Amino acid sequence: MQGHTPRLAPVFILLALSGFILLIRNITSLEKWNCQTLSTFYQIQNSVYSAFKSLETLLPTEFNHTYCARLGQAPTAEESREERYLLNSIAWPGPPVPGLPLRLSSDPAQSYFVIRGPAERHVGDQLVVDVHMLNFMGQPKKHGGDFLLARLHSPELGAGVVGQVHDGRDGNYTVLFPLLWAGLVQVELTMVHPSEAVVVLKRLREEQPDRVYFKSLFRSGFLSETTLCNLCLPLGEQPLCNYTDPHTGEPWYCYKPKMLGCDTRINHSKGGYKKNLLTKYEEQLFQSGVNIKVPIHASGMDNVTVLPSEQEQPKVRSNTFTPAGYYYHDSWRPLTGLTKNQFNDSSAITQCLKGKIVYMFGDSTVRQWFEYFNAFVPELKEFNLHSPKNVGPYLAVDSGHGILLSYRCHGPPIRFTSVSSSEMHYVANELDRIQGGSDTVVLVGIWSHFSTFPVEVYIRRLRHIRRAVVRLLNREPATLVAIRTANPQKLDPESSLFNSDWFSLQQDAMLRAMFRGLNVHLLDAWEMTLAHRHPHLLHPPPAIVKNMVDLILSYICPVRKKKRRS
């Protein structure tokens, strides 16, 4: 037996080590710890694990999504009622039986639309279009829930307007278009997702809110560690660092580094995207060119001729759908009572912004506005704040005309490559630091980075921003506040799972409802993108950005209506 002892020694050591780890696991399961402290046993366990487990790869783990939605400050009874109302307002119809085979799902290639009525209309009339959805077997669908987008346009006139889609919940849809200009107008209908795919998106939003995951780097001297972060992390996995904002109560957590303290965090960044989210069946519902953003064609004519009305200006009748505006000669024309000016030279922009402080908060679609101003107005000089490219913060000044422009990204979750921890500011907190007044402009856009989370998370963030906006307007009612809506974007099988237009549409509805009735301007990026001739992009192209900036400047410097002489 003595001759075999050296060969068996590694086995005995491995067994002893396994027993030690099992013992420590059992002990630590009885320990109570919080985000700031670790038990001695847990430290021993972590030191043992660190010998066998590399920290190079960070992968998200499953967690209870209902816990995620309920983190942060508890809503009041009134806020809970509002949340229930909002969630009910975006309830989406779906198949009566989940898991229908692909052949019974919506096939845009076989579906069709029919234009009601005569081939000639007049400006001010309403165009009604009937849409009939068929499955891949050529049979009429019997349930609703397909996600459709509609546009009416005249390419040669650079004109376009969105349509309003009504779901009959029986496989048939009705689309309403206002007729706002004379000429040949064409109907364009697109199925973004079949109803069967929307069911999958709803499941992902609730069950996989960590499908985009985040990380932070911790550093002290020569020692550095990277850990996983998110709005919530599984309880009991390992100790947490709690970065919940003390003012808004917005939650954020990271796994505590094994060797460093929670106060050594130096940045925040996107970790990556989870893979293999769908079953083989579900993958069939997300195919480019088959059932993701595929056009639906007409049965018969897809256009009508619109004749001029007897009135000089087109007016939408009271019983028709009224959009936020429309394009004509590629220029956005609001239908909200505002006259939009054209700011085609830098001097006009400078005169409008003279003496103004413009604060921009949000994601990269708001950063586009800062970049537009900075590139188009030579008098603006950008300060080098040594900020990472495409992250910010940014600051530009025209001292001669007393203009100051700034941009700062919103707080987590945000999918930028790397943001310094010291620059992670929540919009609500930033608004509370603004004095406000007639020379102050606040522009906010926050939507895209919340698309993977339950809607309750987005509602909570908007609620905090709304409270701060109300406080700002109470301090200084003359402060101009404009809020940007979401916009449709390019989709493929992968991006649909993280950034689908269906997620954006639901967020868009929440934002509009929560800021309705406040003295704020709503910049309708959804309609301005959907109505334009350019393809949908997350970051709208320069032609659309210019129209947005012109609209913002028209808010700041409205046209003064001339008084009629008596």
CATH architecture of the largest domain: 3-Layer(aba) Sandwich
Q: Give the overall average pLDDT.
A: 88
Helical amount: 25-40%
CATH topology of the largest domain: Rossmann fold
**CATH homologous superfamily placement of the largest domain:** SGNH hydrolase
Q: Major sheet: size, sense and barrel closure?
A: 10 strands, mixed
Beta-strand share of residues: 15-25%
Structural class: alpha+beta
Number of DSSP strand runs? 25
Distance between the termini: 120 Å
- Name of the level-1 CATH class of the largest domain: Alpha Beta
Q: Give the low-pLDDT segments.
A: 1-17, 19-57, 61-67
Report the principal-axis shape.
globular
Q: How many distinct folded domains?
A: 3
**Alpha-carbon Rg, integer:** 28 Å
- The count of helical stretches stands at 14
Short summary of the structure?
The chain is α+β, with helices and mostly antiparallel strands and 566 residues long. The chain has three domains: 21-75 and 212-273, no CATH class; 102-200 and 284-307, Immunoglobulins (Immunoglobulin-like), CATH 2.60.40.10; 338-556, SGNH hydrolase (Rossmann fold, 3-Layer(aba) Sandwich). Helix content is 28%, strand content 23%.
Description:
- The protein is an alpha+beta fold and 566 residues long.
- It folds into three domains: 21-75 and 212-273, no CATH class; 102-200 and 284-307, Immunoglobulins (Immunoglobulin-like, Sandwich), CATH 2.60.40.10; 338-556, SGNH hydrolase (Rossmann fold, 3-Layer(aba) Sandwich), CATH 3.40.50.
- It contains 14 helices and 25 strands.
- Strands 1, 2, 3, 4, 5, 6, 7, 8, 14 and 15 form a ten-stranded mixed β-sheet that branches. Strands 19-20-21-18-23-24-25 form a seven-stranded mixed β-sheet, with helices on one face.
- Strand 16 (325-328) and strand 17 form a beta hairpin.
- Helix 1 (5-28) packs across helix 2, helix 8 crosses helix 14 and helix 10 packs parallel to helix 12.
- The termini are far apart.
- Mean pLDDT is 88; it is low at 1-17, 19-57 and 61-67.
